[in-house]
Specification:
A hairpin with a 6-residue loop joins strand 8 and strand 9. It is globular, with a radius of gyration of 22 Å. Strands 1, 2, 3, 4, 6, 7, 10 and 12 form an eight-stranded antiparallel β-sheet that branches. It is of the alpha+beta class. It has helices spanning about 1-5, 20-30, 45-50, 60-75, 185-200, 230-240, 280-300, 315-325, 330-335, 355-385; strands at about 10-15, 35, 40-45, 85-95, 100, 110-120, 125-130, 130-135, 140, 150-155, 160, 165-180, 215-220, 230, 245, 265-270, 270-275, 310. Helix content is about 35%, strand content about 20%. Bound molecules: 2-oxoglutaric acid and fe (ii) ion. 2-oxoglutaric acid binds next to strand 11 and strand 12.
Length: about 400
C-alpha cells in the first residue's frame, strides 16, 4: 500500500463529522464526564456511560465508530483486521497539555496500532492554545476544527504533542485501534451492556445514576481530598447560571456525600423551578440538553408550559449557599477551569423557564428513542460480540 510506505503514515480529513454529531457528543460529554487521567483533563468513556445507567447514550457513537474503523482499515490497508481498543470523549481545560510522545509509548499501550482524533470544537472559537503538532513530516501543525479528524499510526513514526490550553475547553472524540482481538473494546462493552439491560429492563427507564463522588471531584493538584476544589457536575451547572436546591435535611457535613444521588431542584437567581430531578446527573443531562437544543426550541413554536417557578425563600437561599460551600469549595477555580469563550459564561443568553421546561420533556423523548434503538440493536451485538449499526427497516 502506498500509505504504508509513507515515512509518517497519517491522514487529515475535513468535515468527517457533521456539526450536529459534534454538538450531540458535546452534550454527552458535558453531562457525563468524570475527572480524567491527567491534570485538567476530563473524560467520558463508553463503559462509564453504561455504569451510570445511560447505556442508550452509546447509540450516537455507533455509526461514527464504524465509519472511522472502515476509514482507518482502508487507508492503512488492513481490511477486517482491526478492533476498536478504546473510545472516549476527552476534554482539555486551561493548563492541560502533552509533550512529544507516540501513542504506544508504554508497555501496556503496545497493542495500539492506530489513533483517530476527531475534533468536536474549534481552535480560536471554543478554546485558545491546544494546537496539535507532528514532530516530523506534513502536516506539521493541525488547528482543531469541529468535524475534522486526524488518523495516524500509534508508533514512533508519528511523534506528536499538544500545546497548553490557555482558555476554554478543547473537546475530542479519540479512538485507538488494535490488531490484537484480546483488546477488543466491543466484547467488554457487550458484556457490560448485558448486565445493565438485565438489571434494568423497564421500558423507558433512562434515568442516570451518578458514579462514586470522587470520580467527579476536581482538586487543583490532583490530591483527592475534599477541602479544595469542586464537584464537576455542580461546576458545570454553576457556569451556566444554575444553582442546586435540595429539600433533603442534612445536619452534618459527612451526610452530604450521598446528596448528589438524591432528588433535587434547580434555581436561577431568585427563582426556583418546582420540578424534581432524581439526582445531580439527571439535572445536568437536562440542562446540557437544553443548551444543545435551546436555539431550536426558541424558534420553533413548541407548546410551552411555564411550569411552576416560585420565588426562593430566604431559607432556600441559605440552603443553596450551604450546598455550594460543600460542592463548590472554590468557585473561582471552577469558573477558571470551565470558562467558556462564548457568551454563556455564568448564564445563558435569553434564558426562559418555559423553554427550559419544554426541554425537560424533550430530553425524555430523546433518551427513550435512543433506548429503543439500543434494545433493538443489542441482540445482534450480543450474537456477533460486536457493536455495529443495525439497519432498521421499520421506519
Ligand atoms: O487531542 C489531540 O489532539 C491528541 C491527544 C493525544 O495526543 C493523546 O491523547 O495521546
Ligand atoms: Fe497522543
Amino acid at each position: 500500500m502506498a500509505e504504508a510506505k509513507q515515512e509518517h503514515p497519517r491522514l487529515l480529513l475535513h468535515n468527517f463529522l457533521t456539526l450536529h454529531q459534534c454538538k450531540e457528543l458535546e452534550f454527552i460529554h458535558k453531562s457525563n464526564s468524570t475527572v480524567g487521567y491527567r491534570a485538567n483533563v476530563f473524560s467520558t468513556t463508553l463503559s462509564h456511560l453504561i455504569a451510570t445507567n445511560s447505556p442508550h447514550l452509546l447509540m450516537p457513537f455507533v455509526p461514527i465508530r464504524e465509519r472511522l474503523k472502515e476509514k482507518v482499515e482502508e487507508f492503512f490497508g488492513c481490511e477486517y483486521e482491526l478492533c476498536v481498543e478504546f473510545t472516549g470523549l476527552i476534554s482539555w481545560c486551561r493548563g492541560a497539555s502533552i509533550g512529544w510522545h507516540s501513542d504506544d509509548n508504554r508497555p501496556y499501550l503496545k497493542q495500539r496500532a492506530f489513533a483517530a482524533v476527531c475534533y468536536l470544537n474549534g481552535y480560536g472559537k471554543d478554546f485558545k492554545g491546544g494546537l496539535f503538532h507532528f514532530q516530523d513530516g506534513e502536516p506539521t501543525t493541525i488547528e482543531p476544527l469541529a468535524g475534522d479528524v486526524v488518523i495516524y499510526t500509534a508508533d514512533s513514526r508519528n511523534i506528536h504533542s499538544v500545546d497548553e490550553i490557555t482558555d476554554g475547553e478543547r473537546l475530542t472524540l479519540t479512538l485507538w485501534f488494535s490488531r490484537d482481538a484480546s483488546h477488543d473494546e466491543d466484547a467488554k462493552l457487550v458484556s457490560l451492556l448485558s448486565q445493565s439491560l438485565l438489571h434494568n429492563n423497564m421500558p423507558g427507564e433512562c434515568l442516570p445514576l451518578p458514579a462514586s463522588s470522587n470520580m467527579y471531584w476536581f482538586s487543583p493538584n490532583q490530591t483527592s481530598h475534599k477541602h479544595l476544589g469542586f464537584d464537576i457536575c455542580w461546576a458545570r451547572l454553576h457556569i451556566l447560571g444554575f444553582d442546586v436546591y435540595s429539600y433533603e435535611d442534612r445536619s452534618s457535613d459527612s451526610d452530604f456525600s450521598e446528596l448528589p444521588m438524591k432528588p433535587l431542584q434547580l434555581a436561577r437567581e431568585n427563582e426556583l423551578l418546582d420540578h424534581d430531578f432524581v439526582n445531580i446527573l439527571h439535572a445536568l443531562q437536562v440542562v446540557q440538553f437544553y443548551c444543545w437544543k435551546a436555539s431550536g426550541l426558541q424558534t420553533s413554536k413548541v407548546t410551552i408550559d411555564s411550569g411552576k417557578v416560585v420565588e426562593l425563600s430566604q431559607w432556600q437561599r441559605e440552603k443553596i449557599n450551604c450546598l455550594k460551600s460543600v460542592f463548590l469549595k472554590d468557585h473561582q477555580l471552577a469558573e477558571m477551569v470551565f470558562s467558556c469563550m462564548t457568551s454563556n459564561v455564568r448564564g445563558l443568553p435569553f434564558f426562559d423557564w418555559a423553554v427550559f421546561n419544554s426541554a425537560v420533556a424533550l430530553w425524555e423523548d430523546y433518551a427513550s428513542k435512543l433506548r429503543e434503538q439500543l434494545v433493538r440493536s443489542f441482540p445482534y451485538w450480543r450474537t456477533h460480540q460486536s457493536i455495529f449499526d443495525v439497519p432498521y427497516d421499520g421506519c
